[in-house]
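To close the chapter, one final illustration. This time we ask the reader to focus less on the individual chains and more on the assembly as a whole: which components sit near each other, and how the overall shape emerges from the parts.
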Amino acid sequence: MNQAPKTREPLFHLVKRDVTKKWIPWAIRAGAVVAAFILLGLMSLISLGVNPFKVYKYMFEGAFGDSFRVMRLLRDLAILLLFALAVTPAFKMKFWNIGAEGQVLMGGFACMICMFYLGGKVNDVLLIFISLAASVLMGAIWAGIPALFKAKWNTNETLFTLMMNYVAIQIILYTIKIWAPGGTGTLTPSAYGNLPAIGGEHFWFSIIVALVMTAVMFVYLRYTKHGYEINVVGESENTARYIGINVRKVVIRTLLLSGLICGLTGFLLVAGIDHTVSSTTAGGRGFTAILVSWLAKFNPIAMIFTSLLVVFLSKGMDEVMTQVGVTNSFFSQVVTGITFLMIIGCEFFINYRVVFRHRKNDEAAPAAPIPEAAADTAAPAPTTEEVPIPSETTQANAAEEE
Amino acid sequence: MENAIELKNITKAFGTKVIANKNVSLDLKKGEILSLLGENGSGKTTLMNMIAGIYYPDEGQIFVNGKEVTIKSPKDALDLKIGMVHQHFKLVDVFTAAQNIALGMKDKGHYSIKKVSAEVSEMGARYGFVIDPNKMIHTMSVSEKQTVEIIKVLYRGADILILDEPTAVLTPQEIKKLFDVLREMRKDGKSIVIITHKLNEVMEISDRVAVLRKGEHIGTVLTSETNEKQLTEMMVGQKVDLEIDRKDPVDPKPRLLIEHMTVKNRDGLNAIEDVSFTINGGEILGIAGISGNGQKELLEGIAGLQKVESGDVIFHNPKKNKPVTFFHKDLKKIKKMAAEGCFHYPDGTKVDLTGKSKKEIVRLVNEEQILFYEDEIIDLRHRTPREIQELGIKLSFVPEDRLNMGLVGNMSIIDNMALRSYRKGKSIFVNKKRPKSLADKIISDLEVVTPSDMTPVRRLSGGNVQKVLVGREISSSPKVLMAAYPVRGLDINSSYLIYNLLNEQKEKNVAVVFVGEDLDVLLALSDRLLVLSGGKVAGIVDARTVTKEEVGMMMLSRAKAEDAEALNLPTTEKKEDVE
Amino acid sequence: MAFVSFLSSAIRLSATFLYGSTGEIITEKAGHLNLGIPGVMSVGAAIGCLTVFKLLKAKVYSTILLILLPFLATIVAGGLMGLLYSFLTVSLRANQNVTGLALTTLGVGLAGHFMNGIKAESGIIARASKLYSNLFGIGGDNWFVEIFLSHGILVYLAIIIAIVAQIVLNRTRVGLHLRAVGENPATADAAGVNVTGYRYVATIVGSAIAALGGLFTIMDYMGGNWEYILEGFGWLSIALVIFTLWRPALAIPGSIIFGGLYIASSYIKGITFAQIELIKLLPYVMTIVVLIFTSIVGSKKAQPPASLGLNYFREER
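The assembled structure is written out below.
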């Protein structure tokens, strides 16, 4: 497959980075974030005419300025973190579940159904538990359907889960219009089945649940047998079969878990924060969560920081916009998008080093695998096909190169 | 006759350890068919890849039509009218034959797939190919795909054709057709190199035979002046004494009985057909054969990784007079087995558990009062690896493609140790303590070169990866150990370490199956030798007395004519030819 | 007569989905799943509108310029978005799903930001919309005219582009190479096809075409009034790609079906608001059914390109 006519040596070539020090990748990512912030400042200067340092100050104030703002930040952080935790086990298995949006919506929807039909008819505490169970179940069903088809017929999960999002949105829009036939399309908040307020705030529950779930997910993925199986299936299906893992079972089980957490998140959004449901209850966070989880390399602890980055950007930019008298979130969306793209782009430099022509490449460490040694000495032979090491597929998602 | 290609003193090495070709000088005359003969790993493909522009020689010169040339890419090769058909087809599945042939062509003028189809048909008529240019690749049989590959090369104007083991995937009838085509092409003035290790084909098709052994050119002979015996001797060479300390088996008893086993490969052909043999505990059964003659399917069939179409895999668990344990056996099952008369007390009387309380049975088991009356006999056919494991059968398997199956490249040595044992225990957590101590033990015992036990396996060298895998597989004190090419790509010291490990296992009464490619090693290590050829048993011989030539002849014997029909099975349409 | 009017409107709206899906088909045929299409369409629309706005502000009233310049600006904007996506996914080998989603975030944000900048005066854009909405300048009660001849230039262009795309993909050497790149890049590479080049060009061209869908939606369908509806239309376009089994020619009737379902509610008497939402659910459900059906049947012809979503790099082992 490797048949590059190398008539002249190119200006530079790429060498796979042998990451021995764990801090290097994070340092590169941090560098990308810093670069993004510099760019953000410059963009604000050009686009809004605000001194970059003022922008940073506003952002910080917007995010952490007072206790109210910190609370909002924490609340949004917790919800986004839950979304990200939900998609993570599936991603770790290389199952591209981009349907968290719909799974959360359906979870919230199930909660609302319980509130709507049972509110006032059953004990409120009981109602909360019924809603919780319904939400979790509904989220799991919504994720389980694509998983079932993936396991049985290898139906493309990316496209399937993507479509399921919009099915969920339409179902909710339909139901809301039945419940509120007035045509406003909004549902008045339910008076029943809401989570109790702690210290005057309704969303403490979300924060606590997010913290607990982060720890649970971290432990689940890293230390449990299930987590271990997810890892093996994601890395090598052949080896999974070899040691007798039922791959189909793991796929379905993991997606049910994903959906379950989505359902829980939907429950918290409806019962804990919004007290109602709408087609924007998830608010695109199902998609943002994919980026959050991926940027954190599927590490739940690191996800706290990547979610913080996203929430900080959004809250901070909101404040900047308020200061300059703009009342929409588009610029903050732009900034978020650019920051994402920069971090996505920087992953390349974590996996590869660019080696320029004049520099000699003499990196063949003694512990380097044979193909590397062969490739070095066999230059300009461009292939390593014959080297007695199983060649991994030449195509791979960059995400596989963790 | 003029030379189409002449190679002078070609040397090619991979890394510092593996010398693929050493000082090879060879020529291909215009309008002849030259067979390139040699065992696996003798450097045939590497040598030809240098002519095809895939590799570049470290030393030596290549002359094409008398002129010295530099071939740096397949394009350079094609410009010199040299084309190679590789073993792995490079075809787009959802394209037609004509579309695949047109792919990458940059000739001027209007693009018309009809024109290509017409030209392909014309070419087919000239050389006797039977090909439908508008047929989709994914609906084609292997032989049709190969035809497409050959036409692809011809369509690009090649006069010199190199075919890498073209017959390996073909049925006898298809081989006959291919040979007819090759003869037509020779008549047309094309020069052809055919890489093979099948002697009868060599004798049938070629004008001359060049023999390679361990990367060196042993000689070139006229086919009309040689015979199979001489070629075999050239191919396998003199026996080399390896000084492997081989003890006689102590009390070998049947452990695994393979009975009339048939396993299909991905193309739906019988890769293993009606194979029967016995594997004994306490001996090493070597499996010899040119690679791709069913070794992989045989082992994977036994291990439960491939569907066994017919036949049985009978496992004799040496349980006679051994106490029953609760390991993977619940009370209900023990009761059932007792009712069937499977157990006896130490004094020889039958165990009868009817009416006994649970507590009492538990006591009896714990005090080792219940013994097996006979060896446990289990048919492993239709059982998944998990089921085999849960039956308490310790079957260890070192697959050929280590990082693709057996190990997870991106996981640490410790985590890879846990692969076999992680399910143990009722806890929901993976116990990492045992894998860690196992990892450290293997690293020190087998001298694995690694920065730490947390290093991802993919970053280790081939030899060290193998030590990790073999180490893990023997750590569970298996009853059966199957190892496929465990020393492939390893240096001498590591190889000996693996041989010693296998011998140790044998002395522990393990039934060891060793699939190898180096006949010297197979003869020095094995007690008995099973020779596979075309998915069938060509012979089971005593490795101590058989000669290398005899084994060589068995390996190279083709399926007899009466088997031809059986081999010519229809192919399914599900297969894929790209890796 | 209602049916004629319905069909006419369905065909009109279909152009949005047709641009989006034709662009995405070209991209996906080369092996790249660009989930940034909603962002690309938004940015394309915004840049096109901005150009119209600037031209009107500069008192340029030439019909040709008011169509041509926004058209070119939209193409360039879409192409640049495609360039950004392909630089990240092809050259920097970034994960396609993640990059696409980030691109949508960026694109929707950018479009909003730009349009917000001219919000106060954006009303004047509507003045140019009639230039976009009726190419032949004829109307009337003839059913043939209403269904086939009453549309704006961008509607006809969408159909032409889809047909051209179908021919190029299936009847030309470029198309052959492009499909090979998306099916089996290693084989294409071995045959001497420039995989990187094809992937770049397919993504950029695809994005440029999709961006035109944005321009059409605002300038023609919305009558020059900016509204944030393009993100949803973008996702529907991606659904259409699956629904039409990666065939631009099928996308023509497919987009009319999607368009018809989207506007159907206005033509059904006595329909409730709830039922409208149910009709809008249909495109997604139909797409899922097609997706499931093709995977169960397993016909090779109806499958996504084999290496869709997978990056290709030669040096990798």
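Chain B has four domains: 3-236, 239-317+380-394+478-579, 319-374, 407-476. Chain B has 19 helices and 22 strands. With these observations in hand, you are ready for the problems at the end of the chapter.
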